[in-house]
Design goal:
- Keywords: Membrane, Transmembrane, Transmembrane helix.
- The protein is 76% helix and 0% strand.
- Helix 3 runs antiparallel to helix 9 and helix 8 runs antiparallel to helix 13.
- The chain is globular, with a radius of gyration of 21 Å.
């Protein structure tokens, strides 16, 4: 019963930061899920080449991955409000410029440069929202519920975003989805920046007198962040990345699974003569993942983070391997749903581990670097799985997905999170 009572933490989330935070945090990350597919559609339409569109999309993904930790470092030092108020209009302008350039028949090099500008100014709303929850300094149950909700929101956004692109492009022009994304950035990323929870997100405080430096991390949550910047010096970017390297490796493995499985599902549906079903099949994974991301909070504390990752990785590998034997889209959809039930817990666990391992003052770097690791993994595995699928069929892509799950199980061994003892009010 005590584990079931933990679900009440979800009901408490709106009271902590307000319903408005949940709304702007959800809608603020929607453009990110629209832009990748939107850019692919826009550039392919403008140039008549899917290959050119792939280069533009790769430019976008790479710059997003590189800029994420840099933005995280900026917000760790200066707080989130000012950096986001600067980035939001610049990102919207870059999106608008890309639309204009594509419509004017600009060379591919120009389009790629603009895609780099879009990626470099993309605000990692999901990662920065996690920073704000952790800054509240609540107990492990509260933090777990918040991170579970954020992972669920990520999954739902990445189901909804591509669907909005498809609808907007079919009802209007290829330019419309990108323009809609620019408007959403201006409205909701700006609102996210102005929300009261952005106050005091710069640097975490030095330990309270009488407590050990590891006391906060031993509780498994970030320390409360005051509205006044303290004298505690934020760690360097390299120092934070070194600390959270095991979690980053795990997240890269999950990203590789995403890239390989999405490519393999597309190849499978195309070979079956129903390419339009690929998006629907893959969306089933997002739904299963979202549900289980919320359920992770009920896991007993004796099931440690490392064990969770090992089980999830092994399960992802086994189910992905079973996909190589699928003979129908219905059978594949059932397996995709099953693997999604493990992906959600893996994501929540990895973000939880990164939050606990990150040194004081480096939470935003850790959270944004996790997003970057995911992007790099997706891009690398999508390229590999696509090449192998062309040569050997969709089964080869699913084999890459299975290998990614196995790699996650192995990477989990290096994830070492300090043991914590729950206080009575944290159970």
């Amino acid at each position: 019963m005590s584990q079931l009572r933990t679900f009440r933490q979800y009901g408490a989330l709106p009271r902590l930061l307000g319903w408005s935070f949940l709304v702007v945090g959800f809608l603020g990350r929607l453009p990110t899920s629209m832009v990748v597919l939107g850019v692919l559609t826009l550039v392919a339409s403008a140039t008549g080449s899917v290959g050119d569109a792939g280069l533009a999309s790769a430019s976008l993904a790479l710059s997003t991955a590189v800029s994420g930790p840099v933005i995280g470092r900026w917000t760790d030092r200066r707080g989130q409000r000012v950096p986001l108020l600067i980035l939001a209009p610049v990102n919207a302008a870059a999106l608008a410029a890309l639309v204009v350039a594509a419509g004017a028949g600009a060379p591919l090099a120009v389009l790629c440069v603009l895609c780099v500008a879009v990626g470099a100014t993309t605000v990692p709303v999901g990662s920065l929202a996690r920073v704000r929850w952790l800054a509240l300094g609540g107990g492990p149950r509260q933090s777990g519920a918040a991170l579970g909700y954020e992972s669920m929101a990520d999954e739902m956004v990445f189901v909804l975003g591509p669907a909005l692109v498809g609808v907007a492009a079919s009802l209007g022009t290829p330019e419309l989805p990108v323009l809609i994304a620019a408007v959403l950035v201006l409205l909701f990323v700006t609102a996210f920046a102005l929300h009261r929870s952005a106050a005091g997100t710069a640097r975490e405080p030095a330990p309270v007198r009488g407590s050990s430096p590891g006391a906060t991390r031993a509780r498994g949550v970030a320390a409360p962040v005051p509205s006044v910047v303290t004298a505690h010096k934020a760690p360097s970017l390299g120092a934070v990345l070194k600390e959270v390297a095991p979690a980053l490796a795990g997240m890269a493995c999950v990203g590789m699974f995403f890239g390989a499985s999405q490519t393999a599902v597309t190849a499978f549906a195309t070979a079956a003569g129903t390419p339009g079903r690929a998006g629907l099949i893959y969306a089933v994974m997002g739904l299963g993942s979202a549900v289980m991301a919320l359920a992770v909070v009920a896991l007993p504390d004796v099931v440690g983070l490392r064990l969770r990752l090992m089980v999830c990785g092994a399960g992802i590998a086994a189910i992905s391997a079973a996909m190589t034997a699928a003979t129908s889209t219905a059978a594949l959809a059932a397996l995709v749903l099953a693997v999604g039930l493990l992906v959600g817990p893996a994501l929540v666990t990895l973000f939880t581990a990164a939050g606990r391992i990150a040194p004081p003052g480096g939470t935003a770097v850790a959270m944004t670097a996790m997003g970057s690791a995911n992007v790099v993994g997706v891009a690398a595995a999508a390229a590999l799985a696509g090449h192998l699928a062309d040569l050997y069929g969709a089964q080869a892509g699913f084999a890459v997905a299975a290998a990614s799950g196995a790699a996650l199980a192995v990477a989990a061994v290096a994830v070492r999170v300090p043991h914590r003892r729950l206080a009575p009010d944290q159970v």
